[in-house]
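Hi all, long-time lurker, first post. I run a small reading group and we've been trying to get comfortable going from sequence to structure in the token notation. Rather than ask abstract questions, I figured I'd post a concrete chain and ask someone more experienced to write out its structure so we can walk through it together at our next meeting. Sequence below, copied exactly:
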Amino acid sequence: MSVSMQGKIAVITGGAGSIGHATALTLAAAGADLMLVDINGEALAARRDTVAALGVRVETHVADVSKAADVAAYAARTLSAYGRIDAFFNNAGIEGKLGPTEEYDEAEFDRIIAVNLKGIFLGLRHVLPVMLRQGHGAIVNTGSIASERGLAGACAYNASKHGVIGLTRTAASEVGARGVRVNAVMPGVIDTPLLEAMLKMMFKGDVDAGKRVLGKVATQDRIGKPSEVGEVVTFLLSDAAAFVNGAAWAVDGGALSTIRH
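-- Answer (accepted) --
Happy to help. Here is the structure in token form:
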């Protein structure tokens, strides 16, 4: 089954990151015009050129997703540029520092919650009204396998990603009958700079060893690729997923299906 996003307008937060960029490429290949949002303006500009090379229109906007004014601004900018928002990948997130819960730094906890959880809420808060006025739209929030499992040393990250699924299910229950769908993806161990940053902390700088070890979390014995998440996101944002609402889709090579390792 081929998925079409022809004529659709899609917003992606974390658009300069690996999963955001991979999803932008997949959505562009399916025909969507895009608004890419990220806090890193330089990286965002580079990503824009790569996506635009696929022949679609691509706009960019620099924003901190933890700030309401910035989120309202990227929603308004999208409406100014395109007139509507059909699809929203509410994706921006950070990994934060690792440490035991009983010693975890309060300021670091607040920082991670602000981006990973409040940022998702603010995205919903400012994009949902647009979609509800239109009478249609699809949203995918980014959770994690940490949305359903504990991860020692990552109390703030775990709490934020558990919260994302709660927000997803709540919003889906509120707007499903009004033409808007809200789902989530839960990526597993995906080969991204974010993963490498965590592995440097977990494996004392030996990223390759970390990838070999964590690859065994998946029943497929490997780490996933950002594009494999992007394909699932694109499906969930498309009309092909018209009867999928309030779901949390694991993209994890089978990690959540077992406690194999």
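A couple of things your group might point at:
The chain has a mean pLDDT of 95.
DSSP finds eight helices and seven strands in the chain.
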